[in-house]
User: What shape does this take?
Amino acid sequence: MKLQRYDTSYIKDYSETPEGYLTVNVPITRPGVFPYQRQDGTVQMEAKLPEEIFSDRTLRSARSKPITDEHPNEPVTLDNYQSYAKGMSHTDSRVEDLKLYVSLTITDKELIQKIYDGKNEISIGFMSDVVAETGTYDGQNYEYVQRNIEINHIAIVERGRAGPEVAIRADSDAWQVNDDINKGGHTMPIYKIDGKDYEVDSVVKAHIEKLQAQVVAADAKTAQVDALQGRYDALEAKLQKTEKDLEDEKAKQVSADELDKHVEARVQLIDASKQLLGDSFDFAGKTDREVKEAVIATTKQDFKGDGKSDDYINAFFDATVEQVQATGFSSTGHNAAFTGDAAGDTALQEMKNKRLNMRS
Assistant: This one.
């Protein structure tokens, strides 16, 4: 559940419009650790970190928001806008000098006079998620962090939480930061370098912190890019492996047409070979080449096919079958064969044609 919070700053550079309205350019909030009072009266230190108040969500929420005289006891909405609104913020919210800036136009005569009389601090009313999280920011310890900050209204107040660093100014002088205002003293901001504390001008300190925030944001983006690149590379490698596996699988597979051709050629080979090998020859487990070499051996018993090419074996096989069918062949035992079968001639020719078709 989001909680309502209020922060304060100074108005800087104001001018009157021809209508008498007051237009100001003002930082409305800044990073820091601020005290917030619980309902039981105790105080808890809450951090408003740069990555939160300078986020796109918070920057957008500062645009076109009502200006109020002090904080109302409820969020400003369409239903109560006429009761509370004394002006409106512009749409130029941006980050400068480690602060969130936006221009305001105040249209209420009484509030404008109060500003001239010295009521010049700015306090934002906003909603946020307050998350229990300990840490240190700018040398101050905190117990909670404000997340998902959304600005509801911008109030003109006597004194706000962020101190006089964020307030209406009647000139363009450099910020005079008073970190010890409640104690009546004036001290320059402290910046720690290599474990040692140094007093530095507030503008210099703010600029250094802005650069540090940019470095942190850049490092975070770099880490995100590296992570995304790693995921991309892994997916690309997986895709390449999948594509290779598919190609390998396709190479292993024989199309249905090719399979039909191989089956038909095998049947014709067996039919033609049986004329020379006889029905007792066991064709199971034998390759086409082994069958053809067995046929050749029926007429040339000392035949050895070792080292011979497939084309040589095919030609020798065809010639053997043609010669036997033309001249006749008879024997007993393993080489018994039938001759002069016209159907055999036809089967032989078809087998040769199929083999030529398969080559082409």
About this structure: The longest strand covers residues 140-157. The chain has three domains: 3-183, 188-253, 256-359. Residues 29 and 307 are 91 Å apart (CA to CA). The chain has nine helices and 13 strands.
